[in-house]
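User: Could you write out the 3D structure of this protein bound to guanosine-5'-monophosphate? I've included everything you need below.
Assistant: Certainly. Input first, then the structure.
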Amino acid sequence: MKLIIVTAPSGSGKTTIVKHLLSTFDNLAFSVSATTRPPRKGEVHGKDYYFMSPEEFREHVKNGDFLEWEEVYENQYYGTLRSEVERLWKEGKHVIFDIDVQGALNLKEAFPDKTLTIFVKPPSTKVLSERLRRRKSESEESLKKRIAKAEFELSFANNFDVVIVNDKLEEAFQKADAVVGKYIGETEKN
Ligand code: ADP
Ligand code: 5GP
């Protein structure tokens, strides 16, 4: 079973692309991360994230339950639970992740031989800010944090196996389908 990691600065469109990939490939399942940030409107516990208190998160860190975890934004922790990945592998699924740049590099290091990393790049930082604003999910402070981190994250694009520029969504979907289909197809022959 393989890992497909989709990473990018916030607002690039990785959640949109991951959802599309999940609807295209039946043998792919989403790794639900743990986070201490509050749920956005419409987000469901256990589906989008395992929402937890900082105390609960710290307990998991202490117990070594995370494959990787990060303080992605100040006082906002995110992590991949080992139990989540094992659960999906038991179901016979390849696992797809939506995680930040540092988490993606750490996870790839843990499973170097069976991981495809995809970096989703916005056409420009201006477009990225516009998309984040239009999503209306963030406070002004949170928007600023995300945009400030984006430049830094963009500088990592070349560390990933594939870069998809998300300008026209349909084209980004097609490229994502092609690379993931090829990777899963290739790996299933092994
Ligand atoms: P991320 O998960 O990387 O933070 P999202 O998938 O939530 O990003 O996308 C950010 C916002 O931009 C969403 O409102 C989404 O609908 C929109 N969006 C995504 N891709 C495109 C695109 N190619 N063109 C225009 N808007 C897009
Ligand atoms: P958001 O708050 O927009 O859902 O996510 C913020 C950032 O945290 C995104 O870059 C997202 O990919 C990242 N993220 C989500 N889950 C994880 C995780 O389990 N580990 C790490 N390292 N980053 C994560």
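Residues 8, 10-16, 131, 134-135, 166, 169, 172 surround adenosine-5'-diphosphate (ligand 1) (CB under 6 Å).
User: Perfect, thank you.
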